[in-house]
């Protein structure tokens, strides 16, 4: 069996690494072709990135990125279709909610190749977010939907997806957190800041809904300043550029640092007081590291964390941000919301079960 895996951003590489490792360990007879669309250029994705994280290097890099959502998706569709006709995979595997996710799912479905979507069923119910459109469309053209939670399954059922197409497998990021936890590395600059462990807020801001809106950016950074607690902010290039463009300076208590590698990010998450972020992935990583999270958005896909009191959605309201960052809320949950750390094993088993005819028929390109 041949799998063609489509990814386009660093978080997707980390998710795909977990499943690729499971393929090799459980089904060494499988052939996987890893395709990087190039959607997000990341200077940290050097040879060191692949070696340290034990991530397989892409067989193909399409070099598509930097355009609008429509431009990127259209160009990816064209290139991925050519590649799928050449490689003739039995399955196309996509992750998450990027333009690469949508392009991979659309190209495969139009060629009648089985599509498997990892992280299916997540919904923010905000269709102004490009990610929401991507995840909905990818789900509805997929053959197998790997949902991380029961709520994700219910979202799919409410949209008319047949129940036999849905598998609750848990979250592959839970697998990744367990695998990489012992490999976490303290950033070389940390000690020079003069901040102790569990004394700082770890913050990330990169979503366009924040970085493209001067009022939201002003509100977020006013909240960080008012909190009067040390904040470590790995500055996404987009955020750095927008701050300069808007004439906003970092408050004195906010330590802006260059983007960090994944292993350094895990260390910061494990050793911070709490997390403030607009990233969906970082919200979950805060949970995996048993840290309270403040979400700098108007909604979140991870509503079970909000319901459990482990995550508070504050938007860009400076008063709410400051209040949450000043609090001493402790993580207090033993519940496993995202599975048992064996999502990848379940994904591999489901793919082979479906392909061997024990599931439903899958049309495959053979010509």
State which percent range the strand residues make up.
5-15%
User: For the largest beta sheet, what order do the strands appear in spatially?
Assistant: 3-2-1-4-5-6-7
User: How many DSSP E strands?
Assistant: 13
Overall average pLDDT: 91
Which runs of at least 5 residues are low in confidence (pLDDT < 50)?
358-367
Spatial extent as radius of gyration: 20 Å
* N-to-C order of helices and strands: EHEHEHEHEHEHEHEHHEHEHEHEHEHH
Largest sheet, strands/sense/barrel: 7 strands, parallel
Shape: globular
Helical region count? Answer: 15
**Helical content band:** 40-55%
Distance between the termini: 16 Å
Coarse structural class: alpha/beta
Write structural notes for this entry.
The chain is an alpha/beta fold. 43% of the residues lie in helices and 14% in strands. It has 15 helices and 13 strands. A seven-stranded parallel β-sheet has the order 3-2-1-4-5-6-7, with helices on both faces. Strands 10-9-8-11-12-13 form a six-stranded parallel β-sheet, with helices on both faces. Helix 3 (69-87) packs across helix 4 (99-110). The longest helix is centred in the first third of the chain and has 19 residues, at 69-87. The protein starts with a strand and ends in a 12-residue tail after the last helix. The model is unreliable at 358-367 (pLDDT under 50).
């Amino acid at each position: 069996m041949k799998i063609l895996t489509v990814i386009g951003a660093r978080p997707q590489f980390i998710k795909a690494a977990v499943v690729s490792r499971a393929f090799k360990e459980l089904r060494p007879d499988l052939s996987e072709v890893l395709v990087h669309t190039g959607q997000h250029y990341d200077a940290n994705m050097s040879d060191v990135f692949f070696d340290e994280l034990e991530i397989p290097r892409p067989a193909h890099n399409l070099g598509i990125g930097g355009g609008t959502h429509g431009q990127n998706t259209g160009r990816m569709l064209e290139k991925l279709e050519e590649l799928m006709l050449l490689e003739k995979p039995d399955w196309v595997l996509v992750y998450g909610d990027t333009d690469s996710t949508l392009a991979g799912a659309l190209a495969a479905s139009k060629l009648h190749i089985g599509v498997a979507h990892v992280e299916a069923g997540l919904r923010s119910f905000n269709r102004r977010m490009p990610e929401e459109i991507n995840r909905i469309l990818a789900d509805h053209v997929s053959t197998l939907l790997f949902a991380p939670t029961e709520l994700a399954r219910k979202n799919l059922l409410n949209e008319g997806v047949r129940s036999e197409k849905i598998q609750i497998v848990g979250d592959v990021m839970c697998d990744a957190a367990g695998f990489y936890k012992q490999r976490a590395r303290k950033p070389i600059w940390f000690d020079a800041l003069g901040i102790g462990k569990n004394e700082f807020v770890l913050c990330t801001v990169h979503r366009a809904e924040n970085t493209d809106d001067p009022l939201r950016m002003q509100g977020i950074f006013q909240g960080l300043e008012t909190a009067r607690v040390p904040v470590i902010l790995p500055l996404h290039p987009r955020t750095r550029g927008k701050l300069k463009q808007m004439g906003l300076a970092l408050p004195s208590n906010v330590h802006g640092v260059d983007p960090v590698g994944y292993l350094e990010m895990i260390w910061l998450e494990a050793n911070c007081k709490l997390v403030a972020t607009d990233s969906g992935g970082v919200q979950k990583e805060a949970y995996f590291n048993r840290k309270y999270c403040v979400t700098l958005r108007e909604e979140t896909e991870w509503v079970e964390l909000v319901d459990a009191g482990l995550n508070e959605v504050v938007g860009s309201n400076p008063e709410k941000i400051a209040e949450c960052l000043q609090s001493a809320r402790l993580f207090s949950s033993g519940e496993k919301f995202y599975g048992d750390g064996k999502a990848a094993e379940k994904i591999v088993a489901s793919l082979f079960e479906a392909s061997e005819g024990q599931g439903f028929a899958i049309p495959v390109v053979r010509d």
